[in-house]
Amino acid sequence: MNISLEAGEEILSIYNQLNVGLEYKLDGSPLTMADQRSNTIIISQLKKYFPSIPIISEENKSIAFELRQNWDRFFLIDPLDGTKEFLRKNGEFTVNIAYLENGIPLRGVVFAPCLNRMYCGSPEHGFQIFELNQFREFEEHQLNESEENTRSFRIVASRSHNNEKTEAFISQMRQEYGDVEIVSMGSSLKICLVAEGKAEVYPRLGPTMEWDTAAAHAILNYANCEIINFETQLPLVYNKVDLINPHFLVKRKS
User: Fold this and answer.
1) What percentage of the chain reaches a pLDDT higher than 90?
2) Most exposed: 94, 116, 182, 190, by fewest CB within 10 Å?
3) What fold is seen in the domain 153-252?
4) What pTM was estimated for this model as a whole?
């Protein structure tokens, strides 16, 4: 928790500046000083406290598969998930830190600095949500499921990525459930909305990387939810050769 909090505060210090040091990667995706500084903080702290556990990061992703294929445990991080939301100043970006064993996310933290909200999942404590109070301390947030049986069927959709396949899925859900509400959100917060019970499904029928989902995947594991390959219906797997996720669906378990 403290590592993601430190990274989040560094991100906010840059978020409030006029110059965020915007660059572009070879694939055309944006990169800011906030991405880089958050990455430095997280990696340095993880190495300090867990020196024997390797790390895969979005900003440090060129580790050869021949080296990492034998890792039985590792951290998978996205120092700033939702850079486009960061640049749009809508606050819907997160710090994602996941710990995996044998390719399975066991622990995850997703921290949204602008929203003062942190989602956590672990074997010891299960699924937790914390709200950051004015004294910069976290207080556990209690879920309110009173509206669960009265609201419409909610589908989470991306603010920055949408396509015809997603629209076709939404149309199918309308045929099955009638009254469907679309909830738009950025970054891995989309996955967390399902974990929190504020939406029923989140279809992602476009490209993502493993660091986009690992932390939130760990949280889902303790929230009676799952994230599955859209085609095979099997859970997502990690530390693949290319680190690219298949199309997936996040949903509550029946």
Assistant:
1) 73
2) 182
3) D-Maltodextrin-Binding Protein; domain 2 (3.40.190)
4) 0.91
